[in-house]
Structures are given as structure tokens and as C-alpha cells.
Amino acid sequence: xxxxxxxxxxxxxxxxxxxxxxxxxxxxxxxxxxxxxxxxxxxxxxxxxxxxxxxxxxxxxxxxxxxxxxxxxxxxxxxxxxxxxxxxxxxxxxxxxxxxxxxxxxxxxxxxxxxxxxxxxxxxxxxxxxxxxxxxxxxxxxxxxxxxxxxxxxxxxxxxxxxxxxxxxxxxxxxxxxxxxxxxxxxxxxxxxxxxxxxxxxxxxxxxxxxxxxxxxxxxxxxxxxxxxxxxxxxxxxxxxxxxxxxxx
Length: 249
Ligand code: PEP
Hints:
Elements: E1 5-9, H1 16-30, E2 37-41, H2 47-54, E3 59-63, H3 80-85, E4 90-93, H4 96-101, H5 106-119, E5 122-127, H6 131-135, H7 139-150, H8 156-159, E6 163-166, H9 180-198, H10 200-205, E7 208-211, H11 219-223, E8 230-233, H12 240-247
Parallel strand pairs: 1-2, 1-8, 2-3, 3-4, 4-5, 5-6, 6-7, 7-8
């Protein structure tokens, strides 16, 4: 069976002291959680504080982005080996905000996944349609094309190490969650794309997380769907009580 992943994407929130205070409150609240992987992704500068505070606990720490080259004249960028050298274990790749504001494409997503895997990071790769694409009935076309260009070129061994997050852009930070049925249909479609490219075993093993206004009062319905294997959570991951209740739902 697939172990669920509950990952918090803090975006550009919290200082280093706030990061430590959050983790000190979260750690005891999730210590007895059922089998699941628990990940917090703070901004780059607060990774060391988070890694220190979460050491020897069930919580693992991830970055929100990385650059695909190891080093060089790329002002402002951070590489995969730099992240692993400080004990970072996960990385979010291709979040819709990175695609929208920072020019990320399926091609850069693919390069970043490969760089992350080479360094031993566990990537959470985001895909999802925009509102106008859903309204034009193009959800499967968009997901299919993001999968084909950003994920399908991976080797099977590389693919086996990634998680995918289905994040409909219209549901991110808007309070509009996809209904469990809408999310389940997209997850089902993605799993069939995986099956077509990587086979039955890979499709059965891949964790596909849902993201988009996940809250304590809607996680139960989402996680009850057989193809939904966890959540990538923005707003509701900023408060330790609410994130703990997502982990412990
Ligand atoms: C996200 O940032 O990935 C996200 C899903 O945000 P929110 O939960 O706030 O919609």
C-alpha cells in the first residue's frame, strides 16, 4: 500500500524563530500519527532552523524550489547538492506559483527533477490546470501535456522516486477546494497516464497528492478517494494545530 504524504508548503512565510516555535508545537502533536510521511517546506533561509528543530523526529524538511545545475554563476539560485548538504530531504518542483511568476516550464521542471534525484532529494512534482482551462474542458489535455513533457521522459528508476501533486490552480489559496469527485477524476487520469508510460506496478506505487485549499474540514472526503495519497497544503500548514489535524485526520 502507498504510505500517505502530508506536506506543508509555507511559501514566503515565517521567520527562523517562528519556524522553530512552529516545529516545537507540531512535533508532540504528530508523534503518534498513523504511518505517513510528514514534510514541512519552509523558505530556503529557514531550512537550517527547521532541520535542526525536526532532527530525530518524524518530520522531514523540504525546499520549495532548486536550480538544476550544481554550481556556477547563477546569482540567487540554490542547487540540489547544497540542499542535501544541510540535511534537506524533499523538494517541491513546478509549483504553479513558480510557473506563473518565475517562468517555470515543463522543460525546467524535468531538469529540476533529474537534478534533485541525482542529489538524493525526494521531489514532489506539481501539475494542475488553470480555471480557464477547466472551463474549456481542457483539464486532461493540460495534465496530459504537463505529464508528457515534465515527467514522462524520466527513466522508470527515476520515476519510482517521485511523488506527484495534483494542484488545480483555481483551488490554490482561494478557499475553493476541488470536490473529492473532481480531484479523484484528475488523480485517476494521472494514474492512467503513469500506467501508459511506466506500467502497472509504477502506477500502483506512485503517491499522487492533492493540493488546493485543503483544510481540516475537507481532508477526510479527499483522502477517502482511493487515488488520493496525501496532500500538499499551503495556508492550513502555517498553523501547527491545523497542520497536525490534517496529519492526524
Ligand atoms: C499550495 O501552495 O500548494 C497550496 C495548495 O496552497 P493552499 O493550501 O493555500 O491552497
